[in-house]
Design a protein that fits this description.
Elements: H1 8-13, H2 17-33, E1 39-43, E2 46-51, E3 68-75, E4 80-84, H3 92-104, E5 114-117, H4 125-133, H5 137-154, H6 158-171, H7 185-192
Antiparallel strand pairs: 1-2, 2-3, 3-4, 4-5
Helix pairs in contact: 2-4
Length: about 190
């Protein structure tokens, strides 16, 4: 559920009171632990925390006009979410994060980088704050660039991809030949003209 709000203040104002209080509580934890080189603003219809272009001019590789997203905070239809991009790609931060969360005894509802929650009490806020604090912008940029390099090395070169496709096409088993059908009267008529 993306918001059309253009500022964080507008985004918070459009939330129901209970959701606003929960999002604001998580936001305060993030802001208290956020490195000075990150900025807060609206991104992708939610509150975003990102590396601005003056720190990382390349921006997000899929859309370089966008700054590099570090974290997000959103009120979705059925839950609220915190997005931690530093936990994406099986990083050391993710391993630490999952382990630290488990030790709190709280249930972790997490996808690749999205932590879903219904109320702020569902969250291990101290672990969340520490996860934010552990990844200053320069460290996040290094992680991001390493992830991009890793993805690029796993992609086959265009020539190898074309050769692989051609080999796959040649090696497919041929289907049994069907007995030829007797020509229809129409096709026979066309040939005799």
């Amino acid at each position: 559920m993306q918001s059309k709000a253009t500022t964080v203040r507008e985004y918070l104002a459009e939330l129901p009171a209970g959701r606003r209080a929960a999002i604001q509580a998580v936001r305060e934890v993030i802001l208290r632990n956020l490195d000075k080189d990150y900025e807060e603003g609206m991104q992708y219809g939610m509150i975003g925390y990102y590396v601005p272009h003056h720190v990382f001019p390349a921006g997000y590789h899929c859309d370089p006009r966008q700054p590099l997203t570090f974290a997000g905070l959103a009120s979705q239809k059925n839950y609220m979410s915190v997005y931690l991009m530093s936990c994406y790609g099986e990083s050391e931060v993710e391993k630490w994060f999952r382990s630290a969360w488990t030790k709190t005894g709280k249930k972790l509802d997490m996808g690749k980088c999205c932590i879903r929650f219904k109320k702020v009490e569902d969250l291990a806020l101290d672990v969340l704050g520490e996860a934010i604090r552990r990844v200053p912008a320069q460290k996040f940029i290094e992680h991001y660039e390493a992830l991009l390099q890793s993805m690029a090395s796993k992609k086959p070169a265009p020539q190898r991809l074309a050769a692989k496709k051609a080999a796959t096409t040649r090696s497919k088993p041929k289907s049994r030949a069907k007995s030829p059908k007797s020509p229809s009267k129409k096709s026979t008529a066309k040939r005799t003209r």
